[in-house]
């Protein structure tokens, strides 16, 4: 089966510019995650969607970051305006995770990531 | 709160050496534990997992045992290969609708021929 797709793979912008990242999860996966991974650190969850609803966006800097998953399939993460400290790899992941399986943990499948450099 | 602590890297080994990467955790309740691997230029992949105490996860020659008494989930491999060079992340998570993972900082492994 096709994996999680992300684009672009690399992006270089200047501070105060805007940027958008796209993610297409594995077909049938209800849950979609966006992570920020700064060099030398573990992934930090920015936002989690269940279908087209937000489950957790507690660590999303909402003054500059936004994300949507309008039809419950692919998703877009936007940064506007970008800051130097936003330089990182942005990872998208998906999992099957139907709400009914409360007792189960479903594996998260990751895309290759988008490496953002803010100059 | 919940947290994961991994040994700092980088770890440099010669091919066929024994590998241990330490991981300890702090958690309320009964988490599942995971090791993810990130090869250069690629996304994260699940390497192995364990869902309850004394479970042993294994994959590709790697093993880790869920030790509740020591709150540890150390990753081991008996004989590493150059192709194992990657960054390894320990993580914990809880079953249920909110499946947020708590991540360690990662340990970089370089295997020299």
Compact summary:
The complex is a heterodimer of chains A (119) and B (113). Chain A has no helices and eleven strands. By secondary structure, chain A is mainly beta.
Describe what you observe in this structure.
Chain A has 119 residues and is an all-beta fold. Helices cover 0% and strands 46% of the residues of chain A. Chain A is built from no helices and eleven strands. Chain A has strands spanning 5-7, 10-13, 19-24, 31-37, 44-50, 53-56, 65-68, 75-79, 88-95, 109-110, 114-118. In chain A, the strands form two sheets. In chain A, strands 2, 4, 5, 6, 9, 10 and 11 form a seven-stranded mixed beta sheet that branches. In chain A, strands 1-3-8-7 form a four-stranded antiparallel beta sheet, with no helix packed on it. The radius of gyration of chain A is 14 Å and the shape is globular. The N and C termini of chain A lie far apart (37 Å). Chain B has no helices and twelve strands. In chain B, the strands form three sheets. In chain B, strands 2, 5, 6, 10, 11 and 12 form a six-stranded mixed beta sheet that branches. A four-stranded antiparallel beta sheet of chain B has the order 3-9-8-7, with no helix packed on it. In chain B, strands 1-4 form a two-stranded antiparallel ribbon. In chain B, a hairpin with a 2-residue loop joins strand 7 (56-59) and strand 8 (62-65). Chain B is 0% helix and 50% strand. By secondary structure, chain B is mainly beta. Classes of the chains: A mainly beta (119), B mainly beta (113).
Q: What fraction, in percent, of the residue positions of chain A are helical?
A: under 10%
Shape of chain B: globular
Extended strand count of chain A: 11
Assembly state of the chains shown: heterodimer
Please give the largest β-sheet of chain A: 7 strands, mixed
Strand runs of chain B, count = 12
**Distance, first to last CA of chain B:** 41 Å
Percent range for β-strand residues of chain A = over 45%
Instruction: Identify the overall geometry of chain A.
Output: globular
Query: What is the distance, rounded to the nearest whole angstrom, between the alpha carbons of the first and last residues of chain A?
Result: 37 Å
Low-confidence stretches of chain B: none
Number of helices of chain A: 0
């Amino acid at each position: 089966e096709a994996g999680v797709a992300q684009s672009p793979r690399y992006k270089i912008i200047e501070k105060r510019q805007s940027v958008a990242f796209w993610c297409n999860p594995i077909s049938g996966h209800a849950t979609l995650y966006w992570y920020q991974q700064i060099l030398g650190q573990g992934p930090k969850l920015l936002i989690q969607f269940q279908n087209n609803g937000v489950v957790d966006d507690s660590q999303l800097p909402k003054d500059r970051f936004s994300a949507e998953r309008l039809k419950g399939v692919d998703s877009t993460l936007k940064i506007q305006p970008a800051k130097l400290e936003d330089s990182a790899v942005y990872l998208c992941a998906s999992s099957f995770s139907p709400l009914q399986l409360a007792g189960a943990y479903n594996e998260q499948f990751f895309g290759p990531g988008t490496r953002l450099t803010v100059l | 709160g919940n947290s994961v602590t991994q040994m700092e890297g980088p770890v440099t080994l010669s091919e066929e050496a024994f590998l241990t990467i330490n991981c300890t955790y702090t958690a309320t309740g009964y988490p599942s534990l995971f090791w993810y691997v990130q090869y250069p230029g690629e996304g994260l992949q699940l390497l192995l997992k364990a869902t309850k105490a004394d479970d042993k996860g294994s994959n590709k020659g790697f093993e880790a045992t869920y030790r509740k008494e020591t709150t540890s989930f150390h990753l081991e491999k008996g004989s590493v290969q150059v192709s194992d060079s990657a960054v390894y992340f320990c993580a914990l998570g809880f079953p249920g609708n909110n499946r947020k993972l708590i991540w360690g900082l990662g340990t970089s492994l370089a295997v020299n021929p």
